[in-house]
Amino acid sequence: MLRKFFIFVILVLVVISFGKTKLTFWQFMMDDALAKEVLSGFSKEFPDIEVEVVQLSWSTGFDKIVTAIAAGAAPDVVELGNTWIANFASEGVLSELHPEDLEKYRDFPGMNSTEYMGKYYGYPWLLGTRAMFYNVDLMMKAGLDPDRPPQTWSELLEAARKISELPDVYGIGLPAGEVYSPWQEWFLLAIWGNGGNVISKDLKKATLNSQQNRDTARFYQELSKYALKSKQKDLGDAFGEGRVGFLVSGAWSIGTLAQSYPNLNYGVCLIPKPDKPDGIHASFLGGEILAVPSQTKNVDAARKFINYLMRPEIAMIITKHYPGVYPADPKASSDPWFEDNPLHLVFFEQLKTAFPVPPTPAWPKIEDVLTNVVDDLIISYKDVDEVLNFYNTEIQRILDEVGM
After folding, report:
1. Residue 23, SS3?
2. Residue 298 and residue 196 share a domain
3. Which of 52, 120, 129, 335 is 20 to 30 Å apart from 328, CA to CA?
4. Residue 70, pLDDT score
5. CA separation for the pair 162, 172 (Å, rounded)
6. Using one digit for the tens of pLDDT, what is the confidence trace for 178-209?
7. Domain range for residue 310?
8. How far is CA 371 from the centre of its chain?
9. Which residues form the signal peptide (predicted)?
10. Do β-strands 227-230 and 283-284 pair in parallel, antiparallel, or remain unpaired?
């Protein structure tokens, strides 16, 4: 009798196992322990869906995803960097968002980074951005009010000038001489804040030499007179040592400063905006996007899983492990964690006016051009019109080669 009972139990377990929908989830953010914590609630709520979580590395993950898709072995759900969406969507290998989900998340920060050619191909899950750090003590020494950090370009320009008059101090740090940071840590952000862009909305025409961008470049050149110009890491160290008044950086700097410069008296504010009614506190939007490859057969189960991961209380589990990425859901701001971490709340607020790079496969080449633009403007101090006209031609050449 006992033997029959055990056989019965085994048969039941086999039936239950075969009755489950199995999903594969490829992602970068969670190790095994964190994945278990995040998914514990899902397995209870959806016992009929079994999820296999695979952690990818940033060094090889992109290539593994490309290879799997090419081989017809794509995962059911995949995490993509938001700058990758255009590459995959242009190849037709991602499913469009279900209309119900598009309606649900349409107004979330980061949804603009999932769009390609008027259609949406992903869910903004975890987002990161830039904000402006300011040295409280240096502001006070320069006769500035640290309770009112600069809100506009003119206010920042004046504050940076005053701080630079202090001995052995720079008003602001501006990245130069390396890839990425020269345009990510403010130049392109300033262009967006002033209503400009580097390519047209249809992704076909270079617009670097527009009037908005000329005005932005002239402001940036003027600001650079009071700046320490170096690589971002060097600027971070200089800020921590109290030698720089202002610095645009990511939320990772909060942890770095706490560890390396625990006595630094500083605050964080939104990135200053242009002095005009339609000026924007614009910032750079980076983020992790959840997508469903078009090869996926378990679409309904994949949607249930993604909608679970999108919940603010679930995404906040990851934020608490990795401060610096935040849930896209605005309701996450009510989480008590932000009360204990008010500097992070500034970054969460900055997400509301953060923009992704243009969704074109040509972007990797265009960003190299922007690095040269910044160096020519603030290191070589070349003529604004000459620089923008020259590199506008370069960007147009890149766009023509891609043939959007």
Report:
1. strand
2. no
3. 52
4. 96
5. 11
6. 999 999 999 999 999 999 999 999 999 999 99
7. 19-128+285-355
8. 18
9. none
10. unpaired
At 225, is the secondary structure helix, strand, or coil? coil
Nearest C-alpha neighbor of 213 from the set 391, 398, 403, 402: 391
Q: Are 308 and 45 in contact (CB under 8 A)?
A: yes
Specify which residues 49 forms β-bridges with: 21
CB-based contacts of 25, cutoff 8 Å, min separation 6: 51, 52, 53, 54, 75, 76, 77, 78, 79, 305
pTM of the model: 0.91
205 and 245 assigned to the same domain: yes
The pLDDT tens digits for 361-388 are 899 899 999 999 999 999 999 999 999 9
Residue 8 in this model has a pLDDT that exceeds 90: no
Q: How far apart are CA 198 and CA 401, in angstroms?
A: 16
pLDDT at 12: 41
| Residue (of 210, 247, 215) closest to 231 by Cα position | 247
Work out whether strand 49-55 and strand 244-250 pair parallel, antiparallel, or are unpaired: unpaired
Beta carbons of 129 and 350 less than 8 angstroms apart: yes
H or E stretch at 395: helix 384-402
CATH number of 236's domain: 3.40.190.10
Q: How many CA atoms lie within 13 A of 104 on its CB side?
A: 15
